[in-house]
Amino acid sequence: MPMEVPAGFVQMPGHDPGIFNSILGPFWARAEGEGLAIGFRVEARHCNPVGQCHGGMLAGFADIVLTGGCNYLARLSRFLVTVSLTQDFLAPAALGTWVDARPEVLAVTRSTLFGQCLVIADGVPVLRASGSFRFGGDPDPRFDRLRRLLAEKA
């Protein structure tokens, strides 16, 4: 199973061992002009019994893309609490495929961000997701690690 990562992607900053995000990853990010791509390679541990990426993994990935990616795009440096996350599963993503998404900020209010993304597996749309995310506390440098990492790699 190929585990290579497409050119230009760098491994996203890790989380404390044992928290949910550390169990799902690793994830990889690439700045694309003013935009951002986040991806991962489907491993056996991400799959259901028929060798396809589990829907829960895709939903978890979309949540991370929308919270982390939209935080990056909107330059918030804040923890974002998921209030609503809607997913439409479009197609399967097989073991070994590269899966990525580009978050899009739809709106930012005083307390909430609204975003969406399309998750693609080797060029095929597999999931459409949108959500609303409440600001969880004041700006915090812990939630700006992705911006610092990509700036270092530029």
UniProtKB/TrEMBL annotation:
It holds the Pfam family 4HBT. Gene3D superfamilies: Hotdog Thioesterase (3.10.129.10). Keywords: Hydrolase. InterPro entries: HotDog_dom_sf (IPR029069), PAAI_dom (IPR003736), Thioestr_dom (IPR006683). Residues 51-122 form the Thioesterase domain. It comes from the Bacteria. This is Thioesterase domain-containing protein. It comes from Paracraurococcus ruber.
